[in-house]
Structure formats: structure tokens, C-alpha cells
Amino acid sequence: MAVTLDGQLVVAISSRALFDFEEENRLFETGDDRAYMKLQLERLDHPALPGVAFSLVQKLLAFNDAQAQRVEVVILSRNDPVSGMRVFRSAQHYGLPIQRGSFTRGQPPWRYLRPLRANLFLSTHLADVRAALDAGVPAAQVYPHSVHASDAHPHEVRIAFDGDAVLFSDEAERVFQTEGLSAFQAHEASKAALPLAGGPFKPLLEALHRLQAEGTSSIRIRTALVTARSAPAHERAIRTLMNWNIEVDEAMFLGGLPKGEFLREFEPDFFFDDQTGHIEHAALHVPSGHVASGVSNAPHQP
């Protein structure tokens, strides 16, 4: 029988999102890839420190057990194959059962997301993230200097999502940006019973919902919607999730308050938002990634 990843939650991740390769990356960015390869080879037996998305990956892999392989993590990296040896050695050191990877020596690796049928792509490289989103894959640019996840919830994968342009389409965000807050509130109140279209991360939320339903008693998923919406615009968001038959564990309608301190209390393994200002603040408190989608990330017209 042919090997297949069908039915699994497939997470593709760059080596720099999974491990702390910031020192090595500074050498890589000088353009001297031979010196970079030499440094990685010299450090082959020295495991890299965990990176920003390490906790998320480690906990998701805990859904696998003797009965079922539910999660597959694949390295998609602009690293060269020689440096890839250190990535796999580091994963082995931490007990991460990662077997698959593609190392492209500076070329865009996102094109391999299609044959993987990936549910999520995490990378520090913005161009790769944008290309993945354009291809319909939930993707986020990991901020490598984000605060790392708390170890307070070893038996829960905690994930927080922004709403508009992340879980939902950017329909309402477009109204807000062109017509202002009052028009946005009126628009959403008048359409409270009409579900929003799905955003780029709806497929991931659906996949997490399936994983939770199929999962194990040893670990569970806890999700939060963390949005700048407030009443009366909250109702459309809740009704949209109900229409999708998906529940979130927590919903924070913050009415424009900074999200970072609320996220710090929720203690997610990862937070996804489409606005760089929100992400830069959130990264001071929790692991964070920029979803480069929607009107907030559209090219500015002259």
C-alpha cells in the first residue's frame, strides 16, 4: 500500500521557526552560504535551542499514539541539505518524531505544500508565507523574537486566532477601514444573522476541530477567538462559528484594547493575527505569527 498523509493534520514548518537559528541566520544573510554550511556542520552535534513554534509542534505531535498517526510535521526550509542534518539531529535530541523534510538551499520551498496537502505552514520568510496564502494554505510569518510559550499547560495545545481576515473573510474589515467604526458596527449588526465567509485560517480551525474529536485523553486543544470587535458586532462572529458547527473555548471581544496582555493570561502556544501592529505587541507576551492576508496587507495604491 502506498504511503499517504491523508486524514492527518499536516504542519509544514521552516527550520528557523522550529529552532533558534538566529545566530546562524545572521551569517546566512551575508550571502556566504559556504561559511553558513561550515558553521552548521561544525555544530552538528550541538542541538539547536527551541524556537518560537517549538511548543506548538511538540504538543501537536503528542496527539500521535500507538493506535493512530494523527499529526505529521514536515520541515520545509531554505536551508541546504547539509544544514538539514542538524535540523533532524536537533529534532531527534528533543524527541520530536519528525521524519520528512525538504531543503532547498535558498529557493522558495512553499511549492511543496501542494503535494503535502498541508493544513498549516509556519515560516520566518514573508514571501513564502504570502505565496502559501495565495495557494490557499493557512500560513503565518513567525516572529523569531517572540516570547516563547509558557509550560503551564503541558496537556493542552492552546491556540488563539484573530477573527477578521484570519478566521473570517476581510469583508467587515474593509468596511471599517473605508467607512469607520460606526459604519462597521452598523454593518455587522444589520448582518448579524448572515454568516461571514471563511478566512484563510478557517481550514485550520476545521482540522483542529476534527483532531480534537478524534484525539486522545492525554492531550486536548483549547482555542480562543481574540478580536477587536465588541458588541453589537460580536454576534455575527459567534453566529458564524455556530453556522460552521465549530466551537471555540474562549472569545475575547476587546473593542480595540491591546491584545497582548489578554493573550499573556490565556498563555497560547501560538497566536495568529493579520495586523503587524497587533503581532508586534502580542510578540512581547506570547509566540506570534503574522497572517499576511486581507485588506490590511494589500499593496498600497499610489
- In which range does the helix fraction lie? 25-40%
Order of helices and strands: EHEHHEHEHEHEHEEHHHEHEHEHE
**Which assembly state applies to the chains in this document?**
single chain
Euclidean distance between termini CA atoms: 55 Å
**SSE-based structural type:** alpha/beta
Rough outline: globular
- As laid out across the biggest beta sheet, the strand order is 5-4-1-6-7-12-11-8-9-10
Biggest pleated sheet:
10 strands, mixed
Tell me the radius of gyration.
Answer: 19 Å
Descriptive account of the structure:
The chain is of the alpha/beta class and 302 residues long. Helices cover 37% and strands 18% of the residues. It contains 13 helices and twelve strands. The chain has helices at residues 15-18, 22-28, 33-42, 54-61, 81-93, 113-116, 126-134, 171-179, 181-190, 202-214, 234-243, 260-266, 276-282, and strands spanning 9-13, 19-20, 49-50, 71-77, 100-103, 120-123, 139-142, 156-161, 220-227, 250-253, 270-273, 288-290. The strands form two sheets. The protein has a ten-stranded mixed β-sheet with strand order 5-4-1-6-7-12-11-8-9-10. Helix 5 (81-93) links the parallel strand 4 and strand 5 (100-103). The longest helix is centred in the first third of the chain and has 13 residues, at 81-93. The mean pLDDT is 92.
